[in-house]
Specification:
globular; 19 helices; four-stranded parallel beta sheet; binds Double cubane cluster; 8 strands
């Protein structure tokens, strides 16, 4: 801890304010995570990572920087980590998931901006997150309007590079994304001083592919009738995936999966008799946003799948690893990334297809479609999601929330009533 204090000081952080955050996180983590019974032992690693979230990984990143490595901060699952790794850089997710950072964002952004954006901007401007201090370059993208404008404000404080994401999925849009990936490569090569070759890109495609395969393996266990791991735990792992070293992350996730395999064989489950199987769809849940999962899983249900960017949208679909030349690899990257179905695309019917497919695969009893307050994209698309689910006979509850706890009681009432309804 003493070493952490020195590190945070050297990063120019506001230590007094940061201490306040450090004081509340362990309590929140204890309430949501350590209170669970019968957790897999291999969660130890992930618990340890979170317990020292602003210590262990930041120290690793700083060590790497001392050896000349550049760190790139990202905010969206469309930004291909493969390119960064191929140039011997490090990618780290920067999305803010705590109410603690929201007031800092509100100093410069309209109040009616989604909390994810406000928290991300606040974490940087208030100097209360080491990851936001360490990243050499931020990589934004043109997804929603709130983010686009936030990049301009963040860009006054930190080097900011923005990828222009097309908002349709015609052949020419996929081509345009390919071009954007090429431009990203040029920027990353310039920053790192390292040339990306067909070979280095092939290696990084495999590294990220292994990480996605580990997550896919983990999610598969949730399709079991006797689910061996809670939704809260899987959410935590998915959140950690955004900033941990990808090779270590895949190894530790596979280790956990080995244990889950044994649990399945031995019929060990975290479900209680009669627990309802819920899929959460909608906006992402950046760390440490565990609110909804906690409410659902303490109201007679278990979350078995997240159709979110901290869920299936992050790991489904693989980059073709047979691509050999650099052009083939870039094409393969563009194709894979443009398969993600974010509500910033129009039309976005692929997302409805995904939700229907996932509902079957994970044998869900009901869907909770969540919208982060002031996210117009997912809010509007929620109408189409709810209509499609009703047509398919899948019960759905639409909710809107933010990072505060002020609506927790009201949400609990609505979620409990929904689960009760699934029981009848
Ligand atoms: S691919 S969901 S990570 S953009 S919730 S900031 S959309 S106002 S986070 Fe996202 Fe990429 Fe899409 Fe996923 Fe804007 Fe909505 Fe806020 Fe959002």
């Amino acid at each position: 801890m003493a070493d952490n204090q020195t590190m945070w000081k050297e990063l120019g952080m506001d230590l007094e304010m940061h201490d306040v955050l450090c004081d509340v996180l362990p309590q929140a983590f204890g309430d949501v995570y350590l209170s669970q019974e019968n957790r897999p032992e291999s969660m130890d690693f992930f618990d340890m990572v979170v317990a020292d979230i602003h210590g262990i990984r930041p120290a690793e990143l700083i060590e790497a920087q001392k050896n000349g490595t550049k760190v790139f901060g990202t905010f969206c699952v469309y930004v291909p980590d493969e390119v960064i790794i191929a140039a011997k850089g490090i990618a780290t997710g920067l999305c803010g998931g705590s109410q603690f950072w929201v007031p800092g964002g509100e100093k410069v952004l309209p109040t009616n901006t989604c909390p994810l954006i406000k928290a991300s901007v606040g974490a940087r401007l208030d100097r209360t997150c080491p990851f936001f201090r360490i990243a050499d370059v931020y990589i934004g993208e043109t997804t929603c309007d709130g983010k686009k404008k936030a990049w301009e404000i963040l860009g006054e404080d930190v080097p900011m590079y923005v990828m222009d994401l097309p908002q349709m999925k015609r052949a020419k849009d996929i081509k345009a994304w390919e071009e954007e990936i090429r431009s990203l490569m040029e920027m990353v090569e310039k920053e790192t001083g390292n040339k990306i070759t067909a070979e280095s890109l092939k290696k990084s495609i495999k590294i990220i592919g292994d990480k996605r395969r580990a997550l896919a393996r983990l999610y598969n266990f949730r399709k079991e009738e006797n689910v061996p791991i809670s939704g809260r735990d899987v959410l935590l792992i998915s959140q950690i995936a955004f900033y941990d070293d990808p090779v270590r992350f895949a190894t530790m996730t596979n280790k956990l999966c080995d244990e889950l395999e044994e649990r399945v064989t031995n019929g060990v489950s975290v479900c209680k008799q009669g627990d309802k199987r819920i899929m959460v769809t909608g906006t992402p849940m950046a760390i440490p946003n565990w609110k909804l999962h906690q409410l659902i899983e303490t109201s007679g249900a278990i979350v078995v799948c997240e159709e979110t960017c901290t869920g299936t949208r992050y790991f489904e679909n693989f980059v073709d690893e047979k691509a050999e030349t650099i052009d083939e690899e870039i094409e393969a990257l563009a194709e894979r990334y443009m398969k993600i179905n974010c509500a910033c695309f129009t039309p976005n019917t692929g997302r409805i297809d995904d939700i229907l497919r996932l509902a079957k695969e994970y044998k869900v009893d009901g869907i909770i479609d969540v919208n982060l307050k002031f996210c117009n994209l997912y809010d509007t698309e929620g109408f189409l999601v709810e209509r499609a689910m009703k047509e398919a006979g899948i019960p759905v509850l639409g909710i809107e929330t933010d990072y505060t706890d002020s609506d927790a009681q009201q949400l609990r009432t609505r979620i409990s009533a929904f689960i009760e309804m699934l029981n009848n």
